[in-house]
Write a structure and sequence with these properties.
Elements lengths: L9 H10 L5 H13 L2 H8 L3 H15 L4 E4 L2 E4 L1 H27 L5
Antiparallel strand pairs: 1-2
């Protein structure tokens, strides 16, 4: 029987894929909204959510990334350095998703 390593390096490639965090688009949207609003309540209203699920999205994202993105302050949320770095990436990813969706919709035949 072949080991996973003997099957053409599948072990290494699989391990690299497994280490990638399953960050969802919803988590990215939630993160950007909180970062831009600086407040969970305002971000929740913007996203048409209540605060508890939005807070869970942020906590899940921080857990997946293994670091805190925000400092909780009395009047809201302030980005930490890791959050500042992640914000530019999150915005870029969401913009690319928008472009991809628009491109496909432009090519798709109309359903009437």
């Amino acid at each position: 029987m072949l080991s996973r390593h003997d099957a053409g390096g599948a072990c290494e490639a699989g391990a690299a894929r497994a280490s990638l965090a399953p960050v969802s688009i919803t988590h990215l949207q939630s993160f950007v909204a909180v970062a831009e609003e600086g407040h969970v309540g305002r971000a929740a209203r913007r996203l048409h959510l209540t605060q508890p699920p939005l807070s869970r999205h942020i906590l899940a994202l921080e857990d997946e990334l293994g670091t805190r993105l925000f400092e909780r302050v009395p009047r809201g949320m302030r980005l930490l350095p890791a959050g500042e770095v992640f914000l530019s990436h999150a915005r870029r990813i969401l913009a690319e998703v928008d472009v991809a969706v628009s491109s496909v919709k432009d090519l798709a035949p109309r359903r009437d």
